[in-house]
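Exercise 7.
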Amino acid sequence: MKNLLMFLMLILLIFPSIVQVRAQPRFWTALNFELEFRGDGTVLVEAKQHPFDYEGRSLMDNATLVNLMKEDESDMIQYILLMFSKRP
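Solution. The predicted structure, written as C-alpha cells, is:
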C-alpha cells in the first residue's frame, strides 16, 4: 500500500510537467457580409470579421488571434457557400 501511494505521488509530480495545455482564447466575432450580385449570375462575397473581448474591446491588435482567424478561413468559405445552397 505504501509503495502504491509513493508511486501515485511520483506520477502526480511528474505528470503536470509533461502535459502542456493551451486555453482557447475567449472572444466573440462581429461578422458582416457584403454581397455583390453580378449580371452573369455570380455573387462576390466579402466577409468582414472583427474580434472583440467580452467587454467590447477590439482584439485586432492581437496577432495570435488574427492568425488563428486566418487559419479558419477555409471553414468560413464553407459557411459562405452554405448561404447559397438549396440543400445544406
